[in-house]
Write a structure and sequence with these properties.
about 150 residues, 7 strands, about 25% strand
């Protein structure tokens, strides 16, 4: 069964709601093993065991969270050649802007040569019903791509 790894930094109620919606979306896809790891505890072994990755982070002062950056720093070299083409998706939540976070994540995943299988999801402000539905769709889309 394909394995989807969700690597997230979820420090707020808004991010928790987004994470739960992503999980609900993945659950709609049959035959996918979902593994959810906080960014500070996820490592190279998790990525190497995964058939795809879904990344989630708040935007902090124009950048991804330090926790997600730590994840990338930890897995970069062990996964560099072994995960070329790994399907991935990303969601970012910010209070006013997510562009810098999305750009930095795109640079790192590009260097890793991962394959983006869903449009990045940018959420600004308190997530409403439409935002949470978009999170469900993102989770399902990435899961289906495996």
């Amino acid at each position: 069964m394909p394995r989807l790894l969700v690597v997230h930094h979820t420090p707020s109620p808004a991010m928790q709601a987004v994470l739960e919606a992503v999980r609900e979306g993945v659950a709609l896809v049959a035959e996918v093993d979902l593994v959810v790891r906080p960014a500070l505890s996820a490592g190279a072994a998790d990525v190497l065991d995964a058939d795809g990755v879904l990344l989630g982070t708040p935007a902090n002062i124009g950048y991804m969270s330090g926790a997600l950056k730590h994840f990338f720093d930890t897995v970069y070299y062990p996964c560099l050649d072994a995960t070329v083409g790994l399907p991935y998706g990303v969601y970012v939540h910010g209070n006013d802007d997510t562009a810098g976070a999305l750009t930095s994540i795109g640079r790192i995943t590009g260097a890793l040569r991962w394959k983006q299988v869903a449009a990045p999801l940018s959420l600004v402000g308190a997530p409403g019903a439409d935002d949470l539905e978009a999170c469900r769709e993102l989770g399902a889309t990435v899961a289906v791509s495996l």
